[in-house]
Design brief:
The complex is a heterodimer of chains A (198) and B (466). Chain A is α/β, with parallel strands linked by helices and 198 residues long. Chain A has eight helices and eight strands. In chain A, strands 1-6-7-8 form a four-stranded antiparallel β-sheet, with no helix packed on it. Chain A has a four-stranded parallel β-sheet with strand order 2-3-4-5. The two termini of chain A are 35 Å apart. Chain B has three domains: 156 residues, 2-Layer Sandwich (Aconitase, domain 3); 97 residues, Aconitase, Domain 2 (3-Layer(aba) Sandwich); 178 residues, Aconitase, domain 3 (2-Layer Sandwich). A five-stranded parallel β-sheet of chain B has the order 5-4-3-6-7. At the A-B interface, helix 4, helix 6, helix 7 and helix 8 of A face helix 2, helix 3, helix 5 and helix 11 of B.
């Protein structure tokens, strides 16, 4: 089953400078009770976004109308902790297509890629520059070009390259699905199993 | 032939093929599933119109959102009940063995795998849960995966993964009295930070590790993910083989001996090279407790709260945010801090040895007034054993109650939630904001340190009582 393609994105950004944002903050465990993948965006950053009475917390960036867009720019070590893919679903469902950070936790990175949410890892310096520019002007736009593996601040000529495995890149550019690939190998897997038995 | 680490040996032994310029296709020997991260994976199979490829290699349990009292009654909370029912439906449709609620084998996925002998050296094991690293204590490549990957394993019994780097962590010497394996791993994480092993698969070795029981080793491997590691493992030895002998799903008789001969060859070759190697001394480790909101923020229970994050892992702003959440100030001693709740349980410290050490400590003493304690066995078998050994009686005499198995207050998906603003000493694995309930303030520690807190009502060095 084809997945959503990703090629290029130009968007304003939502800055979240907090470091070590764990997946319990992205989506608290008590909201993991659904049996479908949809609707998790509603509870994205639930306890940072709303107080215990369900009122929006004015000081949280998702409630700050100056900021918006499809790119989240986050502090280092983003997505640590629990393996819950619900974290990636929630970010995607809310409307983000890219998360930029200077460091990602492994499982989150895989989960994001498996959902067409692109994790873009940049240097600490570039990340600081992004935070600085976004703070100065929330309307500043960032371009993410997957083919070129480049992320740039529009209009400033500042850009950086990012890493992604050649395989994952191909999958995202073309909308290929990992599981389809694996299913095409079933005979080979069966042969491998048989050989192993001997 | 070049020398290999245990990790390389097991990984190479499971590569079905390699995608050009891409990941390895790694065969999975055992797949554990539970109610929370599997429904969408089964939904995916349905959309594709396919069945589970190798149903005999997947084992299911209900653990994350089950209640820990009155398990014989229907689950009260509707969404939890639906998830547990959905798991049963999916398992039945796909012929997967399910150890659901009230089954004698039910329990936390990372407790039952080892205790049933399903987890064995040399295997590849995955589960949609980050603490799958626990199984590495047997000399396995075991790691947590997301739901799309759960679907992948159900669909083709393989996972596409790029090979992580390898790290060896050596802990020499013998831990002092009152220092448990929980303290060892909290110490290591405090030294290297929550992202310190990201990108690596860790092997733990050294005299201190060899001196530990299987259950203590599981506690160490369990928290590998808390320093970002893909997983953590310990080469098998006599302790491993003795633990496995006679277990329900372990090989039996001559077959067992044949397996042991094979398992003995798994250890890293003496000249094997690691991408990174770290050395620690057990003598430097004291009973640990966390003061902040990630597992890297740990200090000796006797120490004051630091003035900045000494791992260098967090900025001043993030450091302050943690302290504000906890209601603590730099320089304050942790010992003597008021404790409202004590939680003993989870896949980290919910095994029989954990309950034994807690019970031995509280025996003949009384729970402090004002402390609410939840003692939650990791499985039905642990619960049964605790009753059989008299642990349940000891606990009751000291004012504690043994609950029924489940993940419970570790992640507070069920009713076991620490109230807002309250302080909990917890034997679980994560002290993230809100992890144990919205606004809950968690201090991670060993079962011994939890016992000392439960008796005194404040954070206490357990060695004062030993």
């Amino acid at each position: 089953m084809p997945i959503e393609k990703f090629t290029t994105l130009v968007s304003t950004c939502v800055p979240l400078p907090a470091e070590n944002v764990d997946t319990d903050q992205i989506i608290p465990a008590r909201f993991l009770k659904a049996t479908s993948r949809e609707g998790f965006g509603e509870n994205l950053f639930r306890d940072w976004r709303y107080d215990h009475a369900g009122r929006p917390r004015k000081d949280f960036v998702l409630n700050d109308e100056r900021y918006g867009g499809e790119i989240m720019v986050a502090g280092k070590n983003f997505g640590s902790g629990s393996s819950r893919e619900h974290a990636a679903w929630a970010i995607k469902d809310y409307g983000f297509r890219v998360v930029v950070s200077s460091f990602f936790a492994d499982i989150f990175r895989n989960n994001a890629l498996n959902n067409g949410l692109l994790p873009v890892q940049v240097t600490g310096d570039f990340l600081s520059l992004l935070f600085n520019r976004i703070e100065r002007d929330p309307r500043v736009t960032v371009r993410v070009d997957l083919e070129k593996q480049a992320v740039s601040l529009e209009g400033e000529g500042v850009s950086e390259n990012f890493e992604i495995s050649a395989y994952k890149k191909k999958c995202l550019l073309n909308g290929y699905d990992d599981i389809d690939y694996l299913l095409s190998m079933k005979e080979r897997i069966t042969e491998w199993e048989q050989k192993r038995e001997l | 032939m070049s020398s290999k680490t245990i990790f390389d040996k097991i990984w190479d032994d499971h590569v079905v093929s390699t995608v050009p310029e891409g990941p390895d296709v790694l065969y999975i020997d055992r797949h554990f599933i539970h109610e929370v991260t599997s429904p969408q994976a089964f939904g995916g199979l349905k959309r594709r119109g396919i069945k589970v490829f190798r149903p005999d290699k997947t084992v299911a349990t209900a653990d994350h959102n089950v209640p820990t009292t009155s398990q014989h009654l229907p689950i009260q909370e509707e969404l939890s009940r639906v998830q547990v029912e959905k798991l049963a439906e999916n398992c039945s449709e796909h012929n997967i063995a399910l150890y659901g609620l009230n089954h004698p084998y039910n329990g936390i996925v990372h407790v039952i795998g080892p205790e049933l002998g399903i987890t064995q050296p040399g295997m590849t094991i995955v589960c949609g849960d980050s603490h799958t690293s626990t199984h590495g204590a047997f000399g396995c490549i075991a790691f947590g995966i997301g739901t799309s990957e759960v679907e992948m394993v159900l669909a083709g019994q393989c996972i596409m993964q790029s090979r992580p780097k390898t790290m060896r962590i050596n802990i020499d010497g013998i831990p002092g009295q009152g220092v448990t394996s929980k303290d060892i791993i909290l110490y290591i994480i405090s030294q290297i930070s929550t992202g310190g092993a990201t990108g690596y698969f860790v092997e733990y070795s050294g005299k201190a590790v060899r001196s530990l029981s299987m259950e203590a080793r599981m506690t160490i491997c369990n928290m590998s993910i808390e320093m970002g590691a893909r997983g953590g493992l310990i080469a098998p030895d006599e302790v491993t083989y003795e633990y496995l002998r006679g277990r329900e799903f372990a090989p039996a008789g001559k077959e067992f001996d044949r397996h042991v001969e094979r398992w003995k060859k798994l250890g890293s070759d003496s000249d094997a090279r690691f991408d990174r190697e770290l050395f620690f001394e057990a003598a430097d480790i004291e009973p640990m407790i966390t003061w902040g909101t990630n597992p890297g923020m740990g200090i000796p229970v006797t120490a004051p709260i630091p003035g900045k994050d000494e791992t260098g892992n967090t900025s001043e702003a993030s450091f302050r945010k943690s302290l504000d959440y906890m209601g603590f100030n730099p320089g304050e001693p942790m010992a003597g801090k008021k404790v409202d709740y004590v939680f003993v349980g989870s896949c980290t410290n919910g095994r029989i040895e954990d309950l034994r050490s807690f019970a031995q400590f509280v025996k003949g003493r009384k729970k402090a007034e004002g402390v609410t304690a939840w003692i939650v066995p990791g499985s039905r078998q642990v619960e049964k054993q605790a009753a059989g050994e008299g642990i349940k009686d000891i606990l009751e005499e000291a004012g504690f109650e043994l609950r029924q198995p489940g993940c419970s207050a570790c992640l507070a998906m069920n009713e076991d939630k620490i109230p807002e603003g309250k302080y909990a000493v917890s034997t679980s694995n994560r002290n993230f904001e809100g992890r144990q309930g919205p606004g809950a303030r968690t201090m991670l520690a060993s079962p011994l340190t939890a016992a000392a807190a439960a008796i005194t009502g404040v954070v206490t060095d357990p060695r004062e009582f030993l």
